[in-house]
Amino acid sequence: MTAAIEIRDLAKSFTLHNQGGIRLSVLDGFDLEVHEGECVALHGPSGIGKSTVLRCIYANYRTDRGRILVRHRDGSVDMASAHPREVLAVRGETIGYVSQFLRVVPRVAAEDVVAEPLRSRGANREGAAKAARGMLQCLNIPAALHRLAPATFSGGEQQRVNLARVFVADYPVLLLDEPTASLDRENREVAVGLIRAAVGRGAAVVGIFHDSQVRDAVANRTVQLSAMREAA
Amino acid sequence: MQPDAVPPLLSARGVTKFYDGILGCRDVSFEIWPGEVLGVVGESGSGKTTLLHCISARLEPTAGTVEYMTRHDGPADIYRISEPARRLLMRTDWGFVHQNPREGLRMGVSAGANIGERLMAVGARHYGNIRHAATDWLDKVEMDTGRMDDLPITFSGGMQQRLQIARNLVTAPRIVFMDEPTGGLDVSVQARLLDLLRGLVSDLGLAAVIVTHDLAVARLLSHRLLVMRRGEVVESGLTDQVLDDPQHPYSQLLVSSVIHP
Question: Which long-range contacts (C-beta less than 8 Å, at least 24 apart) are formed by B214-220?
């Protein structure tokens, strides 16, 4: 396997049992290859399945059919069929995922939230905390906020915490779901800088960027998703 | 990567419990590995607590087996080992945190004695060491060590719950069973306890089985989930898989019924 991510013949539908058993087919026969040092932008109208692709790769969505091979350590793991423990191992070391929402234990300080990916890889407390503070600083979260829980932060600040906790660790694969949606111009530029740096060190990135300036600044390639949704 | 290179700590196979013909739980199978937190969710009466009691040697199942990887003698069926061996496991390797802390504490003796008692049960005799361990654990669960000699009856519900957790963890168990550990607490106390539990589980490499009807608690604490309904597991998987992409009609109903503040 040469690609960092290789998706073959992916199909994903949703059956809404409590709404008359409606079946929504979102992806059917979707293929994608992403190599290291490449940033691919998924493009298409709202509801077309862009986030679904990211979630299938991260495996918080299950799949109906197909393979999602992600290069992990010296081999590759099919996220569509991997054992839950294997999925967690891939997420811990290989895949960083910036979702649109920050979900954290209520009382935990921003700095600890950001340090967590490093801690779970075995970094010592002080080193992880220092790196976390540095990354928060880089995303313009003032030091006075580092020991506070992000639940009290503004939407833009929360998203920056979300970015910080992924970019603090050098994940080989990054999934970015509208990472700059609620950022102001200055922080958008910081985020663009972080993404470009990640691609520069060889990360394989798949992202959804509604902001065309951001997309043009980070993406090497755009993949258009076309409609295939049908109710059955 | 070989996920099964490490053997599971606990394996439940076909665990079934009937109470005089009434179904408690039926044909539940799962495995849990060291350092892993398994959440069990479902509405009241779905069999969650029955299952928890069956897998923690508190209630013998009508059918099925529960196998535990002992420290020295390999896997053992917890209902086939001798009574003293089972008692020893329950006092040392396992913890059980009840929803109501009064069930897990001795209300007539001090906080310090509640913690020390479990240590003495495994042979600790040196008063100074026991008292030192008790102080240390009160501190770990963020309680005022000055309250060491007070009776639990004088504590708030949240403090009693933290004391119960300290009492369970002082013997360095390998697996902890928890029944609605944040159940009767107000939300601010619940948040503190969640943070505490998560920290303890990840720092100590504990395995835990947590029964809860609160999906937010399950999301934050557990790696994997079992969804139970009418005594049976209707869905299982990674926590975010089950909550973000539920497959079974009942799981879909559970997830869509949550009110997000």
Answer: B214/B182, B215/B41, B215/B243, B215/B254, B215/B255, B215/B258, B216/B258, B217/B39, B217/B182, B217/B190, B218/B39, B218/B41, B218/B243, B219/A103, B219/B243, B220/A103, B220/A104, B220/A105, B220/B194
